[in-house]
Amino acid sequence: MHGEADEVGGATGFDWDALVELHLARQAVERGLSRNSLEAYGGDLRDFQNFCRARGIEPRALDAAAILAYLEDLATREFRVTSQRRRLAAVRGLIREMMERKTIERDPTAAVKLRPHPRPLPRTLGRADTAALIEAIDIGTLRGKRDRAMLELAYGCGLRVSELVGLKLNQVNLEARVLIVIGKGDTERIIPVGGAALRALKSYMAARQKAALEPAPQTSAKGNRRRRADAVAMRPNAAVFITRLGRAMTRQGFFKALKGWAANDPRLAWVSPHTLRHCFATHLIEGGADLRSVQEMLGHSDISTTQIYTHLSRGHLRKVHRTFHPRAKRISVDSTQTDDRRPLRAFTED
């Protein structure tokens, strides 16, 4: 491992391990990437690093031919174009780091371009199916109340799964009906909570508070009464959603819970936690919300990311056209009209 003197002096002797670790540490500090983002970013870079190692490509010898060979290798391994683009973006970030540290002088990816591809439209549920999925949850138990509140917030506030399971009690303001959400890059945003989500959240928190105050009926081997595992104290920095063991819900736990409720309807078997975020954005835009407001609530740094949700159904577009275009409505014709010229009819869609 090279010392600080080498790094400050701009030595070119960094190996792949050192370069990747230095780059990830820098990204964590400068961009404030979350642990999940760093793990994904690091996985992409280590895949590239393993490719170079297997072919004996040292950092200082990296060139355009090596980059093209890596992209061909990704295609051979049947990575989708979206995955290839993501990994190329990660490699470009590492290459910028290498240039700053004088490991290489030129960017070998400058002339490398992937073919354009249409961005896939997110699959969403209709309003009725979304409501059916949420209302299928049995709220007769604490677990059911928790799952109902989680689905209501995921759909009603458009939260990412990591934001949902990471929500703390001090981020919830029931009186103001808002959530203070910590998004990507530790950025804060305030999201309003709708009536349905608010009722579900209040119901769950009241049930959880009641469970925390009630002693468990079980006794230990010594005859002492044990507290319920899911009845942890509701401290301000405690997780809003917890498991039966009293731990914060995980992404995998929420995925499993959602799949369990969706299993009641075969038509919803494909639904994932992120589907609810897609539904949130799509239904807002279909309802007439402006793109900037949706961008703010989703926490997108670039509005081009939000624009994918403008994929409205043909039926909705047809309805909007008929409602608002002045010449899209049928015109009643007076049957007693005697003018030789046949009356023109307004355009109507099939």
3D structure, described in words:
The chain has 350 residues and is mainly alpha-helical. It folds into two domains: 4-100, no CATH class; 127-310, Intergrase catalytic core (hpI Integrase, Chain A), CATH 1.10.443.10. It is 49% helix and 3% strand. The chain contains 14 helices and three strands. It has helices at 4-9, 16-30, 35-54, 64-76, 81-100, 127-135, 142-157, 161-165, 195-213, 251-262, 273-286, 291-298, 303-306, 314-324; strands at residues 172-173, 178-182, 188-192. A hairpin with a 5-residue loop joins strand 2 and strand 3. Helix 7 packs antiparallel against helix 9 (195-213) and helix 7 (142-157) packs across helix 11 (273-286). The relative contact order is 0.08. Mean pLDDT is 83; it is low at 1-11 and 332-350.
Secondary structure class reads mainly alpha
Into how many domains do the coordinates divide? 2
Mean pLDDT: 83
Amount of helix: 40-55%
Q: Work out the number of β strands.
A: 3
* Uncertain regions spanning at least 5 consecutive residues: 1-11, 332-350
CATH homologous superfamily placement of the largest domain: Intergrase catalytic core
Compressed to H and E, one letter per element, the order equals HHHHHHHHEEEHHHHHH
Could you please say which CATH topology of the largest domain applies here? hpI Integrase, Chain A
- The strands making up the biggest β-sheet line up spatially as 1-2-3
Largest sheet: 3 strands, antiparallel
Strand residue content: under 5%
